[in-house]
Design a protein that fits this description.
Number of strands: 4
Distance between the termini: 48 Å
Helix content: 40-55%
Strand order of the largest sheet: 1-2
Number of helices: 2
Radius of gyration: 21 Å
Shape: elongated
Strand content: 5-15%
């Protein structure tokens, strides 16, 4: 089978990781997709799988979203158990 690229997969990954590191070092600020504020990278949780290494939402917005999700699930659990449904895993229902 012919190889169309002269680089090995290991060399490609090495070059990509170097470019990602350069990108992360050059971009000190990032835009939160929830509150639309431009914040320093320290205001975001780490997400190594993302290209810039930061999560999509700032820490404050992420906490608010998690709290809202928890309240929704608690309310759903309260409604389902009050009706006698006896759902033990609310995550599959939401």
């Amino acid at each position: 089978m012919p190889r169309y690229c002269k680089l090995t997969p290991e060399e490609i990954e090495k070059r990509l990781s170097r470019k990602r590191a350069e990108y992360r070092a050059a971009n000190y600020q990032k835009l939160c997709k929830s509150c639309w504020r431009k914040l320093p990278r320290e205001s975001f949780y780490r997400a190594p799988s993302r290209y810039d290494g930061c999560s999509t939402y700032c820490i404050d917005c992420d906490r608010a979203r998690a709290a809202a999700r928890w309240r929704r699930r608690q309310e759903l659990h309260r409604i389902l158990t009050a009706n006698g449904a006896g759902v033990s895993n609310v995550e599959n229902v939401v």
